[in-house]
Amino acid sequence: MSNENAANRMWQGSRLGVSRRGALAGLALGAVTLTTGRLAKAACRLTGYQIDGPFYPLALPPEQDADLTNVAGGSGRASGEIIEIIGQVQDGMCRPLPGCIIDVWQADAHGRYAHPLDEPRGRPLDVNFQGYARIATDKDGFYRFLTIKPGSYVAMGDWVRPPHIHIKVHAPFSPSLTTQMYFAGDPLNEKDLLQAALPAEQRARLQVAFDTKRADGVRVGTFNLVLAEGWAPPPELMQQLKSGG
Q1: 161 is annotated as an active-site residue
Q2: What's the pTM value of the predicted model, to 2 decimals?
Q3: In b/e form, how buried is each residue of 203-223, taking b as 16+ CB within 10 angstroms?
């Protein structure tokens, strides 16, 4: 089954996009018991929050698979450097979170989003770039997708946004997370206002070094995501889910 089909099946299973099996897996591996009104102390450091930005798709495109480098009926591969991003989604206790749905959206190599609010300003839109994906984490919380390194663009005034990729994680029984992945070593990171709002340690974890390569030369970066713990449902609900009620 393709990532796209798996994601769509999970998305249709409930409001958070998980099937009954995915929900049970999430309960078994991702839920945490509340004690004295507080979440258990986190063992993994949470991924820093970043805003959605103005260019989240107004309507989700029909093509949402994990390869953003081409589109059905296109004339070729998207412009720019092809990269692969892999990672694992965990909760704050370092437990993998299966059954998550991940939204990915970004600008093309020219720094242009396929969005009506993004004015051209002399930047062509790459019609061969998918621009958005919806993928699912596997049973161990892992995900991957193929894309291109996005271009930078002027946000306002002299603020130039560095290359970045938007990621939103919907987990079965944990709070959702919206963040942005950046490219380590890019000089624009130092002047980025959104990154400046985060503590240095958290900011560094959003910057990914693409220092490994596949056999075909495609650079690979690892971007692990850590969400806050969710809630532990009452035993009656667990039993109902297991019995199919």
Answers
A1: yes
A2: 0.79
A3: bebbbbebeeeeeeeebbbeb
